[in-house]
UniProtKB/TrEMBL annotation:
Name assigned to this protein: HPr kinase/phosphorylase
Organism (species): Brockia lithotrophica
Family stated for the protein in its record: Belongs to the HPrK/P family.
Catalytic reactions on record: [HPr protein]-L-serine + ATP = [HPr protein]-O-phospho-L-serine + ADP + H(+); [HPr protein]-O-phospho-L-serine + phosphate + H(+) = [HPr protein]-L-serine + diphosphate
Protein role: Catalyzes the ATP- as well as the pyrophosphate-dependent phosphorylation of a specific serine residue in HPr, a phosphocarrier protein of the phosphoenolpyruvate-dependent sugar phosphotransferase system (PTS). HprK/P also catalyzes the pyrophosphate-producing, inorganic phosphate-dependent dephosphorylation (phosphorolysis) of seryl-phosphorylated HPr (P-Ser-HPr).
Assembly description: Homohexamer.
Length: 347
């Protein structure tokens, strides 16, 4: 069998078939596509990934609207070796230098067959990282299956870290609730309560005292991978606060960039409610209650509201008390222990 010459002059020893060079410039980028920005509530699709990371699209343009449903990524080394048991087709497939150099040693017909099996109807896209060139058989299989093939110059491990962080944030469970989110002494506090109870006025007072506003009236909350909660303001009301009688105020314009924050983890919920004479409120602090947001239990404090109570100061104290509890000090329990000791001595 006579040898066949290709770009780098190499060929496979077993079959004499040409061995493609992973660095050979055998493909050209497709023409630019008008990629759309993702709108709130819109499913995450491949074109959003292309826009966010600036990938180069080289094949499978018909599949740019394929949905991305999971945040996990997959490097299909075993699948390219022929082992497809437990292969997760629903994940974004990432090829690095290892995978590309491995398939370069395979016969062209076998490469095409492996890539055809790899690109299932559930596969969102394939990302070839580290500046590697996409194998021509991958491009052919991708066009056939309408699965986008994307190129990136970023090293594989670094790219996977960035992709995972982005997908976890975008695909996290989300909800929007009525409330105000502020950062007080570094602690994210979500103020809830009926309309008109004074949440926005309290937040404005906290901002004047040096704390930061995250969101007023509507708080978008998403769940993180470690079961935490992060809140932020919808774009349309970012940095704005509504005060009855004054209207909508731009907090950043009034108090400076240090008075607002883009997002904040939620550590404590403070519920404001009208003072009810018939209700018995906790006076010692021994009762610890929680509320559930996106199936995550969050500590909650109920503050009754009536004229004469300085809510901003009370919320500052609640934040400091919360931090002390995190450090292991619980003043109410210490008081109970002291009281118990005094009663034991008198008994």
């Amino acid at each position: 069998m006579s040898p066949k010459r290709i770009d780098d002059g190499s060929l496979t020893e077993e079959t004499g078939e040409p061995r493609f060079s992973p660095r050979a410039p055998f493909h050209t980028a497709l023409r630019s596509f008008p990629l759309r920005t993702r709108r709130p509530g819109e499913p995450l699709v491949v074109e959003h990934l292309v826009r966010r990371f600036g990938f180069t699209l080289v094949a499978g343009a018909a599949g740019l609207r394929r949905p991305i449903l999971v945040s996990e990524l997959h490097r299909p080394g075993l699948a390219l070796a022929g082992h497809f048991a437990y292969h997760p087709p629903e994940r974004v497939q990432v090829l690095g230098k290892t995978e590309v150099s491995f398939v370069a040693d395979l016969p062209a017909s076998l490469r095409f067959e492996r890539f055809r099996r790899l690109l299932s109807p559930e596969t969102p896209c394939v990302v070839v990282a580290h500046g590697e060139a996409a194998p021509p058989e991958l491009l052919s299989a991708a066009e056939e299956a309408a699965v986008p093939v994307l190129l990136s110059d970023v090293p594989t491990t670094h790219l996977m870290g960035k992709l995972t962080s982005f997908l976890e944030a975008e695909l996290a469970p989300r909800t929007t609730i009525h409330g105000v989110l502020v950062e007080v002494y570094g602690i994210g506090i979500l103020l809830t309560g009926e309309s008109g109870i004074g949440k926005s006025e309290t937040a404005l007072e906290l901002v004047k005292r040096g704390h930061r506003l995250v969101a007023d009236d509507a708080v978008e909350i998403h769940k993180t991978s470690d079961n935490g909660l992060v809140g932020e303001a919808p774009d349309v009301i970012a940095n704005l606060i509504e005060i009855r009688g004054l209207g909508v105020l731009d907090v950043m314009a009034l108090f400076g960039a240090g008075a607002v924050k883009e997002s904040q983890s939620i550590a404590l919920v403070i519920h404001l409610e009208p003072w009810n004479e018939d209700r018995s409120y906790d006076r010692l602090g021994l009762d610890e209650t929680t509320t559930r947001l996106l199936d995550v239990e969050v500590p909650m404090v109920v503050l009754p509201v009536r004229p004469g109570r300085n809510l901003a100061v009370l919320i500052e104290v609640a934040a400091m008390q919360f931090r002390l509890k995190q450090m292991g000090y619980h003043s109410a329990r210490e008081f109970a222990e002291r009281l118990g000791q005094v009663l034991d001595e008198k008994a």
